[in-house]
Amino acid sequence: LSSGNPIKLDQLLDRLRFHSLDEITKQEFQQVSAGGDNNKSITQHFEYLIKDIIDSKNDFDSDSLKILKCLCFLTLGETIRNINRINPKVKNLAGILSRLTLDGIVNVKKETPIFLSSSEDEVNIFELNALIATHIKAVITPNNANQILKTCIDFYFGKNWFSGKPKLNKESKEIFRFN
User: Fold this and answer.
1) d(CA 46, CA 48)
2) If residue 82 lies in a helix (H) or strand (E), which one and from where to where?
């Protein structure tokens, strides 16, 4: 019904105040059967936003694209702190994530850390919708994809992971220690 789009989710929740889920599902099915596919325009909207970021020549959009490429491989999302560690050369990461979140390209979910040493009650996890991630992966070259994956894996398991000598970063050690 919503394709994971935050705007559609808000609209769906609004409609649930007055209609049952069965009624809404039937209405959506009738609209799609009649040729009124709402998801197509949403997909086109995101494609337009992403195309603008890809085609832009300014540094802000260039850095935004780096973050999107990184997040499309981090399927469970990541904290701003770790995104910054994976992409240390990106300037104004908070501003980029704020804009991408407002545009609906990046979703934010709150999670309670499982680390006992953490002083935070909840952390923001930034993630891409699966459809958007698939679209971004389609425009990434295989060499670029390999480099992004290597950078992410190096972050989590250290530079020598490929030679069989992984070295977990602090967050990974905490996760494995308490699970």
Assistant:
1) 5
2) helix 80-86
Determine the straight-line distance between the first and last CA of the chain, rounded to whole angstroms: 35
Please tell me the predicted confidence (pLDDT) of residue 132: 86
Tell me the pTM: 0.66
DSSP H or E run through 107: strand 106-111
Residue 51 near residue 61, CB atoms below 8 Å = no
Query: Which residues, in sequence order, are CB contacts of 50 under 8 Å at separation 6+?
Result: 68, 105, 132, 135, 136, 139
* Low-confidence residues of the chain: pLDDT under 50: 1, 32-41, 116, 177-179
Please report the pLDDT score of residue 95 as a whole number. Answer: 94
Q: Can you say how many angstroms the Cα of residue 141 is from the centroid of all Cα atoms in its chain?
A: 19
CB atoms within 10 A of CB 59: 11
Q: Which amino acid is at 95?
A: G
Residue 168 has a pLDDT of 67
On the 0-12 / 13-18 / 19+ scale of CB atoms within 10 A, 97 is buried
